[in-house]
Amino acid sequence: MTPPYRIAVVGCAGRMGRMNLAAIHAAEGCVIAGGTDQPGSAAVGSDIGLLIGGKTLGVTVGDDPVALFAEADAVIDFTTPAASRRHAELAAQAEVVYVVGTTGLSDQDQVFIDKAAIQTVVVQAANMSLGVNLLQVVTEQVARALDADYDIEIVEMHHRHKVDAPSGTALMLGEAAAKGRGVKLADVARKSREGQVGARPRGEIGFATLRGGDVPGEHSVIFATEGERVVLSHKAGTREIFAKGAVKAAVWGRGKPAGLYSMRDVLGLTD
Question: Where are the domains of the chain?
Answer without folding.
Answer: 5-124+239-266, 130-236
